[in-house]
Amino acid sequence: MLRAMLVMRRHLTCLAVGLAFAAFATAAAARDYVVVASTSSAIARGQGFEAGARVALAPGDTLTLMHASGDLVRFKGAPGGVVLPRRAASQGEADRLAILKVIVAPAAKATVGGMRVARTRSGVCPDPGVIRTLDAIVQAHQGGCRNQAAQALDAWIEARSPAEGM
Fold first, then answer.
1. Closest Cα to residue 69, out of 98, 89, 91?
2. Quick check: is 22 in a domain?
3. Is position 1 within any domain?
4. Which has fewest Cβ within 10 Å: 31, 63, 139, 160?
5. What phi and psi, each to the nearest 5 degrees, are found at residue 36?
């Protein structure tokens, strides 16, 4: 009986430690904002930022960010930089933002033997004009229609005017 309790305690301890590491790793990997446009050469499109982070944005520069919720925010540079607002995002929004970050970031072309490799849905991709929601953009990207998803995301961003940040 005592031996069984010790074994159970060891298993529960391992489980608790594993869950703690998983939670920490998820929190460390999460980003709340992704850069969709920047006039600063030091800030690349597709770069991620945590909520509450101070961004070195010089006066005269602008930065447009997308939050995990899909909201766009534009910041104007200031002498001390800008501080990003704190906002909560659900895990689903954070997962979607991670995929949108891949779409927004400059693409590295995959090649095998000098040929460009692309995976598509049996060669059939929707027209970017019919992909109108962030979820549809993510689905198109996951289905292998990367170019169409990127074009649809750019159109989606252009159709919305970002809120002015602090």
1. 89
2. no
3. no
4. 160
5. -110, -20
Backbone angles phi, psi at 135, to 5 degrees: -65, -40
Cβ atoms of 60 and 66 closer than 8 Å: no
Residue 2, classed as helix, strand or coil, is helix
Cβ atoms of 38 and 61 within 8 Å: the answer is yes
Joined together, the tokens standing for residue 38 give 């920047």
**Kind and range of the H or E run holding 66:** strand 62-67
| CA–CA distance, 98 with 37 (Å, rounded to integer) | 17
Full-model pTM: 0.65
Output the CA angle 74-76-81, nearest 5 degrees: 115
Mean pLDDT of 61-79: 90
SS3 string, 145-161, reads CHHHHHHHHHHHHHCCC
In a domain, 109, yes or no: yes
- pLDDT-derived band at 54, boundaries 50, 70, 90: very high
In whole angstroms, what is the distance from residue 87 CA to residue 72 CA?
Answer: 13
pLDDT tens-place string over residues 90-113: 777 778 888 888 887 766 555 545
In terms of residue numbers, what domain contains 91? 30-164
Number of domains in the chain: 1
Q: Domain for residue 25, yes or no?
A: no
Among the listed residues 97, 113, 115, 94, the one whose alpha carbon sits nearest the alpha carbon of residue 105 = 97
